């Protein structure tokens, strides 16, 4: 596993994570706003519940760290985006390590 391959894969997977996290948050928000604007009951549908759960999972651990630092008050907007970017890079690095480790194990097992 070379550092260049790891960094490239981590950046690609981090960008995919960022896109998926923002997309799921946008879907959950837009569906809840339609219901809120129409004055409907607070029953969320299956798509909204799934998108909300996915967004909540993908924003971890960045949101927990941010909430622990800025308890009850908003932080600077630049810091918010830095935490979001670092969170996605952390997910990308973890997934890249997992993919490359599994690939190396499969190569090693095939030799025997």
Enumerate the spans where pLDDT stays under 50 for 5 or more consecutive residues.
none
Number of helices: 4
- What is the string of SSEs from the N terminus onward? HHHH
Characterize the largest beta sheet: strand count, sense, and whether it forms a barrel. none
Determine Rg (CA atoms, Å): 18 Å
Total strands: 0
Mean pLDDT: 89
Helix content: over 70%
Gross morphology is: extended
What structural class is derived from the secondary structure elements?
A: mainly alpha
Distance between the termini: 20 Å
Number of domains: 1
* Strand residue content: under 5%
Describe what this molecule looks like in 3D:
The chain is mainly α and 112 residues long. The protein has one domain. The protein is built from four helices and no strands. α1 packs antiparallel against α2 (46-58). The protein is extended. The model has no long low-confidence stretch (mean pLDDT 89).
Summary tags:
single chain, 112 residues, mainly alpha, 4 helices, extended
Task: Write a brief caption for the model.
The chain is an all-alpha fold and 112 residues long. It is 82% helix and 0% strand.
Q: What is the secondary structure topology, with strand pairs?
A:
Elements: H1 3-38, H2 46-58, H3 62-69, H4 77-111
Helix pairs in contact: 1-2, 1-4
């Amino acid at each position: 596993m070379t550092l260049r391959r790891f960094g490239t894969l981590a950046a690609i997977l981090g960008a995919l994570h960022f896109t998926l996290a923002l997309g799921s948050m946008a879907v959950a928000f837009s569906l809840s706003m339609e219901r809120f604007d129409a004055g409907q009951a607070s029953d969320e549908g299956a798509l909204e519940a799934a998108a909300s759960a996915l967004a909540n999972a993908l924003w971890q651990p960045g949101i927990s760290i941010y909430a622990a630092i800025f308890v009850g008050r908003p932080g600077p907007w630049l810091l918010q985006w830095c935490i979001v970017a670092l969170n996605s890079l952390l997910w990308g690095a973890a997934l890249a390590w997992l993919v490359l480790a599994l690939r190396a194990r499969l190569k090693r097992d095939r030799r025997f």
